[in-house]
Amino acid sequence: MRLQLSPELEAFREEMRTFFTTQVPQEIRDTVAAHRHPTKEQYVEAQQVLNAAGLAVPHWPVEWGGRDWTPLQRHIWREEMQLASVPEPLAFNASMIGPVIAAFGNQEQKERFLPKTANLDIWWCQGFSEPDAGSDLASLRTTAVRDGDDWVVNGQKTWTTLGQHADWIFCLVRTDPTAEKKQRGISMLVFPMDTPGVTLRPIELLDGGFEVNEVFFEDVRVPAENLIGEENRGWDYAKFLLGNERVGIARVGATKRLIAQAKEHAQAIISGGRPLAEDPRMASRIAELENELVALELTALRVVANSADGKPHPASSVLKLRGSELQQAATELVVDIAGPLSLASFAEDGSDVPDWARVATPSYLNYRKVSIYGGSNEVQRTIIAGSILGL
Amino acid sequence: MNFDFDSEQNDLREAVRGLLARAYSDSEQRRTVVKTDPGFDEKTWARLAEMGLLGLPFAEEDGGMGAGPIEVAIVAEEIGRVLAPEPFIEAVVLAGGLVAAVGTAEQRGELIGAISEGTTIAVFAHAEPGTRWTSTAEGVTATQAGDGWTLTGVKEPVPSGARADVLVVSAAIEGGTGLFLVQGTPPG
């Protein structure tokens, strides 16, 4: 097994690293490194810097800004971005609706949406989950009824991430309630969030932040031309889109950065008269986590080196499962290093407790989501049992 | 060895559970309370006191109920069960526990009854920025000044510190760590 990058790929890594660490504004990277939520303006600025250099949507078709890279190059691109604390291109744009429109939209839709989607001139949000349709997405009940040249949408979506910043929503709606299989009667519509009849209500999260929303639709009129692809084929597009969501979900780079920070904190905290990092139990806990992360990274590299045609490799479920577990283990580690200081979660400026300890618990709580989104870990175990282990 | 709870302990659990179920029947109620100063519900605190729970671990001669760690654990479990924000651990177990364990007869007489009745909230100010679960104090020092002591340094975080009537502060003294009672918010 060769674990070394070729000289060409080494050069590629260096090029990415140099770009990310010199071209993306330091203030934005500091915000991400400190586990604070970037503002909308910071997200937009970062993505536009990447897009101007052709680094926002490398996995798209070349015609629309893609780079025709190998899976390994894309992996390096993503890893270096995470290591440099660069906010990743908005997933709803870059990984979700963009590729769907590129693959299934008509020419007019591609021209209308793709350039603005890559440049974050349009901020998209995802209208999938509903109060009674989460992991069982096909049970969704939001309806769209044809009326002349419009679709009329009624219903409710929930857990709409960063919907408060969004200009447009891509939405799964039921267009054929009589379809024999519930998956068959679903279509994908896109429309502006300021369309009359759209109401957004923020949901306060466990970490005190406002990241997700409920979105209500009351007789929302959407022009027929805003249907993506074919009527009643929305489920296929959703599956295509969720397959993309799983790519890069291992977030090895982000966890590496978290553990590196944890080690610095463990040096700074004094426990029993010496740095906590010198405590044998703490040292072995960190070492164990790092070993598991190396194993995950090697698995991720094997998967990207062997995946073809952009199809999700079955092992990507392993990456999602272990990746989310290690992200959660790393955030838990930081809370434990902070110890009682992590209780100062919502302390105001002027506190003597360092910033990292104040965000430790909110970050830990926020990261509960990673074992739920992108197909919950229970769903991933079922996929592993079926398509890898053949059970 | 018998690990079963006796009937009194089961009754205690039922009573605490009932009281807290009324106070925190849904998470919205809890959120509202946590968001409003002092971050817990004074009325619920008074009811816990009426039930004798705030004096649970203290000796009867000091004004407590003379119960043991099992009873304290039962109350703590029920508080955790509904994530009730009342500072039972901070005030009763930690601060009250320290006064009961090492306080003078005078200090016990002054504080234990008041803590048990819920009229005084005492909290333990021990954590210091830059340390973690230490048994000693370093960042705050105490020096003798006339009839009293002068404490200097920063304790943070102090859970429920903003509401406390009395702080039990750990501070470095010559040859070890001392505990000091500080009333409310004195100058400095």
Could you provide a short overview of the structure?
Chain A is an alpha+beta fold and 391 residues long. Helix content of chain A is 46%, strand content 14%. In chain B, the strands form 2 sheets. Chain B has a 3-stranded mixed sheet, with helices on one face.
Question: What would you note in describing this structure?
Answer:
Chain A: This is Acyl-CoA dehydrogenase family protein. Chain A: It holds the Pfam family Acyl-CoA_dh_1. Chain A: It comes from Blastococcus brunescens. Chain A: Residues 6-119 form the Acyl-CoA dehydrogenase/oxidase N-terminal domain. The complex is a heterodimer of chains A (391) and B (188). Chain A has twelve helices and ten strands. Chain A has helices at 7-23, 26-33, 40-52, 71-83, 91-104, 107-118, 234-246, 252-268, 280-306, 316-338, 355-366, 377-388, and strands at 124-127, 143-147, 150-157, 168-174, 186-192, 198-203, 212-223, 227-228, 270-271, 274-275. Chain A has a four-stranded mixed beta sheet. In chain A, strands 2-3-7-6 form a four-stranded antiparallel beta sheet, with no helix packed on it. Chain A has a two-stranded antiparallel sheet with strand order 9-10. In chain A, strand 6 and strand 7 form a beta hairpin. The mean pLDDT of chain A is 92. Chain B has 188 residues and is of the alpha+beta class. Chain B folds into two domains: 7-120, Butyryl-Coa Dehydrogenase, subunit A, domain 1 (Orthogonal Bundle), CATH 1.10.540; 124-183, no CATH class. Chain B has six helices and five strands. In chain B, helix 1 packs parallel to helix 4 (69-81) and helix 5 runs antiparallel to helix 6. The interface between A and B is medium-sized, with 20 and 13 residues.
